[in-house]
């Protein structure tokens, strides 16, 4: 199947949060001109009717269905043929104080396509924010963020954070007499170089580089406090070669105020 035809997949468990995810997915499918696939894993097929109502956006073809088995396992399988998979941050289970449901967490770590975990309903004209580091996987996240900003006709904040911890051959701390002004200047130049090619590919996007001296999570949240979507890669530079999620992505999924996209 050509990538262009792959559906946007929204996961439905009968909860109100899942309906938020369905509405986000329906708008995304409309913007991307792709079909919308609604899947429920379990016995409660009735919950798909409410989801279809929530998804009714003119021009979007909806296919819905149920699957049996372990929800996270089935949905990870389904993600292999989706362009993006969208879930609520919570569902019907959980407990007070739980910050992220287990199905949402499993998909964010193991899905075969980009994952959007929906939380809140930020204004549609708010900017998209993307976390940019030097990792090779970062380009996929940046491309996803540019697509979203382009389709939504909103600015993209390309946020690069740095601290006095640097990663050369090994992790090290900048010397005490380091010229922080010069380091900041270097970081700004590196970010500008990183973005240059993308500006040509997406001439219509208002692409705004933001360099902050802070740790990634706090830097991203302070640089784009009112973002409608925060886009991050699944792993940063400290990639130990495994699957799963890096600490920045995990922290944003737990604490982010808005939908978070994890792109691998
Ligand atoms: N059985 C399911 N079928 C389809 N989608 C599901 C299913 N269960 C959860 N989801 C999706 O995952 C999202 C998060 O739900 P999740 O199950 O992770 O959290 P929870 O129910 O609050 O906690 P937990 O199940 O871990 O106790 C839901 O909003 C929905 O999008
Ligand atoms: Mg659940």
Give the termini distance in whole angstroms.
20 Å
- Just name the CATH architecture of the largest domain: 3-Layer(aba) Sandwich
Please tell me the overall pLDDT. 90
CATH-defined topology of the largest domain: Rossmann fold
Total beta-strand segments = 12
Structural class: alpha/beta
Low-confidence parts: none
Order of helices and strands: EHEHEHEHEEHEEEHEHEHE
What best-fitting shape do the alpha-carbon axes yield?
Answer: globular
Domain tally: 2
Bound molecules: adenosine-5'-triphosphate, magnesium ion
Which percent band covers the strand fraction? 15-25%
Helical element count?
A: 8
Protein name: Universal stress protein
Family: Belongs to the universal stress protein A family.
Pfam families: Usp
Domain UspA: 50-119, 129-264
